[in-house]
Design brief:
Distance between the termini: 75 Å
Number of domains: 2
Structural class: mainly alpha
Number of strands: 0
Helix content: over 70%
Shape: rod-shaped
Largest sheet: none
Radius of gyration: 23 Å
């Protein structure tokens, strides 16, 4: 009975360490992805995200206020972050 408890404790310890390692790995990966987005310009993000689903309209197609509205709508549809949306809309409004 004592050996069985000892074995179970060892198994639980190993699983806990593996789980912690997995969480740390996910955190590091997420930070790298966030930094990669931070290093991209609005033009890069626009080309990468908007062209996945449709032909991108000319920046002159909409007014700056309209781009704000389009950005909010497309953020929810394309699952981009607020930072990505702000960079894309900022780029489009300057064109």
């Amino acid at each position: 009975m004592k050996n069985m408890k000892s074995t179970n404790i060892k198994k639980l310890s190993v699983l806990s360490i593996l789980g912690l390692g997995f969480i740390i790995a996910l955190t590091i990966t997420g930070c790298k992805a966030s930094q990669a987005v931070s290093n991209k310009s609005g033009a890069q993000l626009w080309a990468e995200n908007c062209q996945r689903c449709h032909n991108t309209p000319s920046p002159s197609t909409f007014s700056p206020d309209q781009w704000e509205t389009v950005g909010l709508h497309m953020q929810s549809r394309s699952l981009i972050t607020e930072e990505e949306r702000n960079k894309i809309v900022g780029f489009l409004k300057q064109q």
